[in-house]
Specification:
It contains five helices and seven strands. The longest helix has 22 residues. It has a four-stranded antiparallel β-sheet, covered by helices on one side. Strands 1-2-3 form a three-stranded mixed β-sheet, with no helix packed on it.
């Protein structure tokens, strides 16, 4: 993209950078020689602290093209709107402290992902590609009744089995239709029960 439009600035959302299951994570800025890159990150996902309202951006600007952007950012930083002091101290502790807990928790998330893949692969009418990180998967509905009607599938599943998924067409009418987003942060027992109900719904 940067080669096709050499005057562009790349904005890289790397909020899940420490939740990579592939072992091949690369920061976009590390691959840029002269293209400006603005990297975004924060505490909500990797540090499991949604609602803390702490994020940051890092500017990689080898050609000094972002001077006006940097000036605008600095003007915004002079405003009084900021995260709370306890949250800022907490994030500092997270950045500078040990990361052993993170490896342990990521292993738990990976086990939950693997359970979901195993259960989905055993159910007729739904399929999924293994996500390489984060804690969501975008499953494709292959059941003839639902493959083009993901919103009704989600609503009917909720009413019939009390399992809530997110309809894929809410993310994109073009690419999301016929898909559902599944969050796999729940305990293994809860996830397993959810798939018992999803299978029952799809086979009823």
């Amino acid at each position: 993209m940067a080669r096709k439009w050499p005057n562009c600035t790349v904005v890289a959302d790397e909020i899940y950078d420490r939740m990579d299951f592939t072992g091949h994570k690369v920061s976009i800025a590390s691959r840029s020689i002269d293209v400006p890159v603005i990297t975004l990150n924060g505490v909500a996902k990797v540090y499991y602290a949604p609602g803390w309202r702490i994020g940051y951006m890092a500017l990689h600007d080898p050609s000094n093209r972002l001077d006006s952007v940097r000036d605008g950012i600095e003007r915004l930083l002079r405003s009084r709107l900021c995260a709370s002091t306890p949250a800022q101290h907490g994030y500092l502790a997270g950045l500078t402290g040990g990361k052993e807990w993170m490896h342990e928790y990521n292993a738990k998330v990976l086990a939950r992902r693997d359970l979901c893949i195993q259960r989905i692969n055993a159910i007729e009418g739904i399929e999924v590609e293994a996500p390489g990180g984060a804690f969501y998967m975008f499953a494709r509905l292959t059941h003839p009744k639902w493959m083009n009607n993901d919103k009704d599938f989600v609503l009917n599943l909720l009413h019939a089995e009390h399992v809530l998924l997110v309809h894929g067409s809410g993310f994109s009418k073009e690419y999301g239709i016929g898909h559902v987003r599944i969050v796999y942060l729940g305990d293994l027992e809860i996830l397993d029960e959810a798939f018992v109900r999803i299978e029952r719904f799809l086979t009823s």
